[in-house]
Structure formats: structure tokens, C-alpha cells
Queue: 2 jobs
Job 1
Amino acid sequence: SQKIEQNSEALNIQEGKTATLTCNYTNYSPAYLQWYRQDPGRGPVFLLLIRENEKEKRKERLKVTFDTTLKQSLFHITASQPADSATYLCALDPSGAGSYQLTFGKGTKLSVIP
Amino acid sequence: DADVTQTPRNRITKTGKRIMLECSQTKGHDRMYWYRQDPGLGLQLIYYSFDVKDINKGEISDGYSVSRQAQAKFSLSLESAIPNQTALYFCATSDTGAGETQYFGPGTRLLVL
């Protein structure tokens, strides 16, 4: 069966450290993968998109990697701050044909401790 | 002003009632989506529309219907609400082209008693 899994429901890290969140998938061949941030009671907000032919993407303190062999994406936040505390969702296109739908993981709740 | 708005933001209703959730967008996007989010289950796609004349079922469409009144408006109806439809509902939009990001509304919190 097709699955998209985020490594843990919750992750606690100390301020200033690098947070690493994992997204694994099985029985998908996505053309791209996206990461979103969701704050409590709010809609998800897009952060980064990485395509199957890209190994790494960066945006300010954020970095995403995409390993289609391992079927895994890693999401890194460097020099983490309490304001980075949120739930982070990964999403991929389930058809692999560059479709316009997204399948979302359940998310990882990140808490950055001052 | 917000690009994607949803009304109402909160709604309490009783089993068997018909209710409508509305979504409007000013982003000029053709594609619109309705999701529900339950604790521990993540976002699940209910319906999506690629333009006014194109509406498609998502993974959990049973018990729901939609109407795309215009490019900017996409409403979700629960014809006869039941308690397990209690959830947080999100509308989203995206531009044309594969891989386009989705822009979400603020959500509607629905409680069915």
C-alpha cells in the first residue's frame, strides 16, 4: 500500500541547534515533494518544493534534500529559534506524473526550547 | 486582506442538518481544493476543482458535495451532517502547472453534535 510517513509526531530541540525532520514514502514515485508549516488553528503555509531531479534546495535557514533511491526527504532548520515551533508537513504528488493533487503526511510537531 | 477566505470560521450543528462551508479566493487561481484535518490523521482531500466546469472526488468524498459557483468561489456542503464529520476543514487554491504550491485558507472548525 502507499504510505507517506513523517519520522515522529513530536520533536524537541534546544534553541540554536539544527532540527532535522524526516519524510519517508513507499510505493510512490513523486515528481516533486513539498514542505509546509502549520501553526495551531491555522492553515498550512508553503515553505519549499524540491523536484525529483534535485538533490537539495535551500531557503534562508531551511534546507531540504530529496533521495529518490531511499524514498526519503529530509527537512533541516539551522540555528533554530522558538518561533520555528510549529507542525511541519511533507506532501507529494501521488501520481508521479506531475499532477495537481497532493498527499500529505501527518506532520511532525517541532518544539524549540529556549 | 487574506487571499483565501473561509466562512464560517466556527460552526456547531446537529446531526442530520445540512450545512455549507464557503471559500473565496482573490489569487486568480483556477484550481481549488477542500480538505479535512483530524488529529492524528493529517489532511485528507475531499474534492478538487480544476476550473468551473471540472469537479473531481478526492479520497474521502462520501457524505460531501461541492459547488464551484465561479472561479473565485468553491463551497462544500454536508447534506446530512453526522458526528464523525466533526473536523477542521480547509480550502486551498493553486495556480496552473504541475508542482504548484497550494495556498490554504484559515480553516473552518466544525462540530456536529
Job 2
Amino acid sequence: EVQLVESGGGLVKPGGSLRLSCAASGFTLTSYSMNWVRQAPGKGLEWISSISSSSSYIYYADSVKGRFTISRDNAKSSLYLQMNSLRAEDTAVYYCARGTYYYGSGTYRGYMDVWGKGTTVTVSS
Amino acid sequence: DIVMTQTPLSLSVTPGQPASISCKSSQSLLHSDGKTYLYWYLQKPGQSPQLLIYEASSRFYGVPERFSGSGSGTDFTLKISRVEAEDVGVYYCMQGIHLPPITFGQGTRLEIK
């Protein structure tokens, strides 16, 4: 069974840091891109970052660029999100999601097919 | 960035009746590779999103046949032929034609009458 399990969420003060992890199982991680998507309380979905299978392509939403870093360890079947300089507006459920992407014609494009259950990050003093 | 606009934002449907959700994108989602990068997700209450439709009209594995997607270019529709109680939740359209960023519609909340 394909499964993604996020961990590492919690309560952190503004300006603090947190590292999220996502453990993948049931599929070959090296064959897929991976993503982080978040959902603020009562709000919609916001894509925040993607990383290609070999980490050659990494993308961020403007809202987190310069503060968050996505990485992966294929040998450990894991995805990570290092979050620094956290703000109240980063409060959300963070989902990792498996991606199928294509690169060509100068564009990187695709979608997410399997999602984890999410981990909750609360930024508050 | 490509803006995704869904209508309506909420709908209430009697079980057994059809439902339809519209999604419009600010740019064409048809790529020169022939694929249309429009996707539909359902987020059931208390759950993570699940993929229903990929490339505008293809049902993902295990998705019931009552769900169908259609459209092209910038105008897309998700239809449920006969709504069931388990279909409640929030439906999102998403574009993936050009990262970054991936963008989602605002979501459409479906409830059962």
C-alpha cells in the first residue's frame, strides 16, 4: 500500500524553526517528485514546494522562498521541510504529496496523486 | 501566476441528483505535449485531499464512474451523475501546467440536503 506519513509538527514561537519529515512506503521514492502543500485553518490548499526525484529541480512558493528548504533522502525514503523564521501566517496543516512531473519545452509540469494525512504546525507566542 | 476560479463555492444536493462544478483558469492549460494539466481533488471532512480526475477527464484509480471531468483550454467542469452521501466535502481544481507555482481553486463545498 502506498503511504506517506508526516511528522515533526508542533507549536513554535514566531521567528522559530521546525523540521518536518515525510516517510514514504509502498513505492519507489526515486521514481517520483515530491511536494509540500499546506492548509491554513478553515482555508484552501496552498502549494509551497516541489523537489524532483534526483533533487535537480527545486521550486518554492513566493510566500516561503528564502525561509523554507525542501530536501529528500531517497536512501531513507524520506522527504523533509526545514522551516525557519516562522510567522503566524505559517500556521497550517502541512501535507506531503507524491508528484508525477514532466520536464521539457522549458517547463516543469505535473500533478500530485497521493497525499499523507498531514502534520499540524502552529506558530504562536 | 495562473488564477483558478471555481463556481459555485457551495452547493447542496439531494442524494441521487446530479451536481456540477465549474473551474476556469486565467491561462490555457493545454500544453504542446497534448496534455491538459487540470486536476480535480476531493477533501472529505477531516481527511487529506484525494485525486479524482487527472488531465481534465481521466478518472484516477478507484474513482467511481459517477465522477466525470470535461472541458478544454480554460473552462472545465466536474460532474457527479448521482450524488451519494459519501461525496460530501470540498472539491478543488488545480493547474499544473507550469511550476512554479501550482495553484488551486478556492474550493467548492458540497453538502447533502
